[in-house]
Design brief:
Blueprint: E1 17-22, H1 25-35, E2 39-40, H2 51-55, E3 59-63, E4 69-74, E5 95-98, H3 104-113, E6 118-125, E7 128-134, E8 140-145
Parallel strand pairs: 1-4, 5-8
Antiparallel strand pairs: 2-3, 3-4, 6-7, 7-8
């Protein structure tokens, strides 16, 4: 029997998309598309509701291998509350990507080669390894893997 004031476990199937405001669309597209290697949706892949915004450069869409969409919304006038990303307040703490344990060290090398600011790590815990770093807008990204 359905309750009228809650969703039953399993009703929410997956994260459909994550929308992020970005200050510099070009830098963010480079970060998510080239550095992190996510596929940018183009042409007929772009959702119909976003075609005009993508065409005018106000939105870019990326997809993770598991199908989660990351929407970037250009907000060039938006400044962070604090230019130091470690002190910037946001209700979202970080976005974590899972990677094969055999590729973790390579991911850390890519982060370092691109001179990305590492906030913490790499760390090794009983739950696996992780490294936390910032995207061009100071949003914290984690690349993590299960124990090998």
């Amino acid at each position: 029997m359905l309750s009228s004031n809650v969703l039953a476990p399993g009703y929410l199937r997956k994260v459909h998309h994550i929308a992020l405001n970005v200050h510099d669309m070009q830098a963010s597209r480079h970060f998510y598309g080239h550095i992190l290697g996510l596929h940018e949706l183009t042409g007929e892949e772009v959702p119909a509701t976003l075609i005009e915004l993508v065409a005018t450069g106000k939105v870019a869409n990326f997809v993770t291998p598991d199908g989660t969409i990351i929407d970037l919304f250009a907000e060039p006038e938006l400044s962070p509350p604090n230019p130091d990303p470690s002190k910037s307040f946001t209700r979202a703490y970080h976005l974590a990507f899972d990677i094969n344990p055999e590729l973790f060290d390579q991911a850390v090398a890519v982060i370092r080669e691109n001179n990305l600011v590492i906030a913490h790590g790499p760390v090794t815990r009983p739950t696996g390894r992780g490294v936390y770093f910032y995207d061009p807008d100071g949003f914290m990204i984690e690349i993590r893997c299960d124990p090998s």
